[in-house]
Write a structure and sequence with these properties.
The complex is a heterodimer. Chain A is an all-alpha fold. In chain A, 74% of the residues lie in helices and 0% in strands. Chain B has helices at 50-57, 84-91, 113-122, 129-142, 159-171, 189-205, 217-223, 241-246, 251-258, 298-302, 324-331, 334-337, and strands at residues 6-19, 22-35, 39-43, 65-68, 71-74, 77-78, 96-99, 177-181, 209-214, 226-231, 234-240, 308-311, 314-316. The chains are: A mainly alpha, B alpha/beta. The interface between A and B is medium-sized, with 24 and 27 residues.
Chain lengths: 299, 339
């Protein structure tokens, strides 16, 4: 890894919004991804104001008829479920849950992953051995079954779903950041920091951390994307929080209703939203990855 | 009681690296009394243990390295017994600072140079940021850098500027001892001269002692009060600078002098010492230089001689040091070294 990489990466973070905007604007896909994320974030923030109905409110059309299993129309833009729930309202309120889970578990998992990685990478030896064996054990766990078992164990509340996701998803970031920390620790300026009498904590958090920051941000966004997918999958399998609506939960309801073959509009909207948001996150992280790894850059 | 004029005192200091091939005695039998306000030069070829020696003093050895010594005191305090927290807080940088081999890579690329200098001051002393910046500015002035450059990032500096910034950082806490590890290696001669001049100027203003490490005999001759010639992890000859250049005793010193150009011998071919430094695995039972020494005698293979004082302050580690005048004559002929 060259000096330039670190300098560019660190500058990208330090110089604030202008440079972030430039990174995001660097290609069509990341620009698209960025605006999609902004869009969903706004939707999530103003969800209760936008949604015309309560997500579990039986709706009636203007003629006073019970609106069950209606395809999209002017009145119900995304159609309704077999129980007459308005899918548009459900979708909007579900955006909130999905983003919340994505961001919270994304950040907690990168927090754990970064700390484990930095500490293991910096200290090496026994500490590294112990921490990396724990990560290995987690790597040995099948992803979704692990989460399902944990949810079954703890309960289906939102916070437990987040906890279950966090407990397994940090493994990748820990490994990657450990490797980077190990390489940076060998650099001359870390020796120099030691000679200057810096404590271990100072070296880890003031001298190594800023140098792994580009990588850390990259994995933060991967973790967010993965958390969203995981929550959707768990919800679809019936391990979601029944109290709050989520995109995966909507698909689960569809499955339960047995109307999969009829109600195309019912699975179309949540599926498209999941795909759109996750790919957008990946597009944006790819733009950051090019900063973190100049070899990917097009010349 | 300790002689108060002696800053750093080492007796029989050694560094051992544990490797898969067995223990490597990278440094052994180092005796040194560093006086206050003295520049002590250590010269030797690559791999002779110069850097290992200072790393052991600063506790920067790799995990498999161990330092042993009969005595290792700084201002009367035992450095080896001291616990690491005390050492880190009270000795490092405060008392002993380092100008490293490659200043190019010694600044953290993500922080401004000034912030790093301020950081090292604030880590050891309770001074405000403003005071620290003030001090950093005056230090930049001392080393001949524009104080405004404190706000630059390391990659915006040239090699010489970084080296000078590094010296400024090493001076920041007025340490008793500044260790300079090849401070001018890799810089062009003009920059090198400018930096050496700065170091000399600083030296006359400060009370600090300097240990100057280099493989460049010219630099060391110009800068130091005393010189030690190091080979195979040991001091081969140690003497006041003039003394050493006027009358060298050790064959290795003679060889080293041959290998450097001088104004007087313009046009003559330089003579190098054939062979390469010894591997230092295991206990050494012979003089480490014996394998390359053209004056190799019986004793050389069986014992590693002790340092012998041949004249005041002039120590030599050679079993045949009485033959030095003869060696000196023969050393000037190229054929001597072609064995």
């Amino acid at each position: 890894m060259s000096d330039t990489f670190i300098v560019i990466g660190a500058k990208a973070i330090k110089r604030g919004f202008v440079e972030h905007y430039e990174i995001i604007n660097s290609n069509v896909l990341s620009r698209f991804g960025f605006w999609v994320i902004v869009f969903f974030t706004l939707v999530a923030i103003f969800a209760p104001l936008i949604a015309p109905y309560d997500p579990w409110e039986m709706t009636y059309d203007s003629d006073g008829n019970f609106a069950a299993l209606r395809p999209p129309s002017w009145e119900f833009p995304l159609g309704t479920t077999h129980l007459g729930y308005d899918l548009f309202s459900q979708l909007i309120l579900a955006t909130r849950t999905t983003l919340l889970i994505g961001i919270v578990s994304g950040f907690i998992s990168i927090f754990i992953g970064a700390n484990v990685g930095l500490i293991a990478g910096y200290y090496g030896g026994k500490i590294d051995e112990v921490l990396m064996r724990i990560t290995d054990v987690l790597y040995g766990m099948p992803f979704l079954p692990f989460i399902i078992v944990l949810i079954a164990l703890f309960g289906r509340e939102l916070e437990f779903i987040i906890l279950a996701i966090v407990l397994i998803i940090w493994r990748t970031s820990a490994r990657v950041i450990r490797a980077q920390a190990m390489s940076i620790k060998q650099r001359q300026f870390i020796q120099m920091a030691k000679a200057r009498g810096a404590s271990d904590l100072r070296i880890i958090y003031r001298h190594i951390l800023p140098n792994v920051l580009p990588l850390l941000l990259l994995y933060a966004s991967f973790n967010i994307a993965w958390s969203i997918i995981t929550e959707a999958s768990a919800s679809f399998l019936g391990f979601g929080d029944g109290e709050t609506i989520s995109w995966g939960g909507m698909l689960y309801e569809l499955w339960l209703s047995g109307k999969t073959r009829v109600a195309w509009w019912w699975f179309a909207s949540p599926s498209i939203c999941i795909i759109l948001l996750v790919t957008s996150l990946v597009f944006v992280s790819r733009a950051y990855e090019e900063v973190a790894n100049p070899r990917l850059r097009r010349r | 009681m300790e002689n108060p004029e002696i800053l750093l005192s080492l007796r029989n200091l050694g560094v051992v690296y544990d490797t898969a091939q067995g223990p490597v005695h990278a440094v052994s039998n180092i005796d040194l009394d560093l006086r206050k306000n003295e520049v002590f030069g250590i010269a030797g070829e690559s791999g002779c243990g110069k850097s290992t020696l200072i790393k052991s003093l600063l506790r920067l050895l790799a995990d498999n390295g161990r330092t042993t010594a009969d005595k290792c005191t700084y201002k009367g305090r035992d450095l080896l017994q001291m616990d690491h927290e005390t050492f880190r807080k009270e000795v490092l940088w405060q008392e002993m600072s380092l100008v490293p081999q490659s200043a190019m890579a010694s600044f953290n690329p993500v922080y401004r140079v000034g912030d790093q200098i301020v950081e090292s001051m604030q880590a050891h002393k309770s001074i405000s940021r403003a005071e620290a910046i003030d001090r950093a500015e005056s230090l930049f002035d001392v080393v001949g850098l524009e104080p405004g450059l404190l706000r630059s990032y390391p990659h915006e500096f040239s090699g010489g500027m970084r080296q000078r910034a590094m010296i400024a950082m090493a001076l920041s806490l007025d340490p008793g001892l500044i260790i300079m590890d090849e401070p001018t290696t890799g810089l062009d001669v003009l920059v090198q001269e400018r930096i050496l001049r700065r170091i000399r100027e600083i030296r006359s203003e400060l009370e600090s002692s300097i240990i100057l490490i280099t493989h460049d005999i010219a630099v060391i001759a110009e800068m130091s009060d005393r010189i030690a010639i190091m080979y195979g992890g040991e001091f081969m000859e140690q003497a006041p600078t003039l003394d050493l250049f006027e009358k060298s005793y050790h064959p290795y010193t003679l060889g080293l002098k041959n290998a450097f150009p001088s104004i007087e011998s313009l046009g003559t071919e330089l003579i190098s010492i054939p062979g390469s430094p010894p591997t230092l695995i295991g206990e050494l039972q012979a003089c480490p230089f014996s394998a390359r020494c053209p004056f190799n005698g019986e004793l050389c293979a069986t014992e590693n001689p002790a340092l012998i004082e041949v004249s005041p302050d002039h120590l030599v580690r050679c079993a045949y040091h009485e033959k030095a005048p003869e060696f000196e004559k023969r050393a000037k002929e190229k054929s001597t070294w072609l064995c």
